[in-house]
Amino acid sequence: MHRDPTQPRPRGTGSLLRHAHRSGAETWYGKWWVNGRQVMRRLGSVRAGTRDGLTRSQAEAALRRAIEDSQTTRPMTERLDLAEAGKRYLANREAIGLKPGTLSDYESYLRVHLLPFFGPRPFDEIGPDDVEAFIAAKRQEGKAVKSILNYVGLLNTLFAHGMKRGWCTSNPMRSIDKPRDRCDPEIRFLNQQELEALLDATPDDLLGGVERVLYLAAAMSGMRRGELLALRWGDVDWDAGLIRVRRTYTRGQFGTPKTRRSSRAVPLADRLGNELRGHHARSTYQGELDLVFCHPRSGRVLDPSRTKTLPGSSTPRGASAGAVP
After folding, report:
1. What domains does the chain contain, in order, with CATH numbers?
2. pTM given for the model
3. For residue 196, which of 216, 178, 168 has the smallest C-alpha distance?
């Protein structure tokens, strides 16, 4: 990495650097001081014969913006490691009402992936190169791109929160390129023949009768598993021909859908409507607050970990659903 050959720079304007990669590509970096600490940030690739990347003047403008952004952040108030910063962030998210399932995911990302890699180093010393090394390590482990994006997404929100609290002066996530999938496989849906085969494969018993309507509802409504398991008869609007998605069942708890868009009304297809009417007539639990897909003997929610059995599974079909105590 070397300084771009320009006239002597005025005080406070930082340094513009060019880094040549082994591939032959080059990257612009900016370096400056904030509150007695040196900051270096990736600004973009160097334009070389195409319209992609930044010219020197564009890199200078990006450097000025980066310096201005860093000067508007709060100065550091204390030095924390990633473990303590993560602990405080999760406590803050819990206090403002983040869903338990999401909190559990965040805690897992920290404990299993982020903390073992970054170790006890100070939170504010984690830089873009460190984050890129983390991404490379996770790809080497064979982690899916979506999973890696979840890990670095949490890291991004941690740094954004840390800048507001004065735990760090910059966010290294702004300077990295996020990983991308090499391919974009299309989602494959069951065709009509496959759906009928699935329905025919459900056992011909009391529990199988619930499963059959559950699988049909999943196929014809597009509702998620947790939304179907939390569905109550009061959510089925027979007159309007709609199913109103108001809650979900996740990790043993009922709650509201994760986002506002998830609370929605789903059209009730004629076939599904007829099957639901028959299911309602057969069910012992027909009240507005009773679960549509409850265990037929207890009325309790079905075990979501056992409602995934498909034809050909090694799990006995009769054990594909059960009551949660």
Report:
1. 2-71 (3.30.160), 82-175 (1.10.150.130), 192-319 (1.10.443.10)
2. 0.56
3. 216
